[in-house]
Amino acid sequence: MPTPTSTTTPLHPSTSTDLMPAKALADRWDTTVKVLANRRSAGQGPPYVKVHSRIFYRFGDVLAYEQAGYVEPLAAR
């Protein structure tokens, strides 16, 4: 039986060095590739890897960026 192949990148790659294309990050953050491009040009967002004209993000960098923005809610008074 042939093994199915996937053309999409999982939202949770298996290792922190796995690369995700900009479209996968845009889907993860419920935004657009254009917004990510604007943030890159403004020096914002997680580090990225440029291969020819394609942009990729390392999963570990994305997780670190997300965790850096984590805010612990204040306890109820």
Plain-language structure description:
This is DNA-binding protein. Keywords: DNA-binding. It comes from Nocardioides acrostichi. GO terms for molecular function: DNA binding. The protein is α+β, with helices and mostly antiparallel strands and 77 residues long. The chain has a domain at 19-68. The protein has three helices and three strands, in the order E-H-H-E-E-H. It has helices at residues 22-28, 33-41, 59-68, and strands spanning 19-21, 49-51, 54-58. Strands 1-3-2 form a three-stranded antiparallel sheet. The longest helix is centred in the C-terminal third of the chain and has 10 residues, at 59-68. It is globular, with a radius of gyration of 15 Å. The model is unreliable at 1-8 (pLDDT under 50).
Shape: globular
Helix coverage percent: 25-40%
Name the structural class. alpha+beta
Main β-sheet description: 3 strands, antiparallel
What's the number of extended β-strand segments? 3
From the structure provided, what is the oligomeric state, counting identical versus distinct chains? single chain
Total of DSSP H or I helical runs spanning 4+ residues: 3
| Rounded mean pLDDT score | 85
Give the low-pLDDT segments. 1-8
Order of helices and strands: EHHEEH
The gyration radius over C-alpha positions equals 15 Å
Alpha carbon gap, first and last residue: 60 Å
Strand order of the largest sheet: 1-3-2
Into which percentage range does the β-strand content fall?
A: 5-15%
Keywords: DNA-binding
GO molecular function, one term: DNA binding
Protein name: DNA-binding protein
Organism: Nocardioides acrostichi
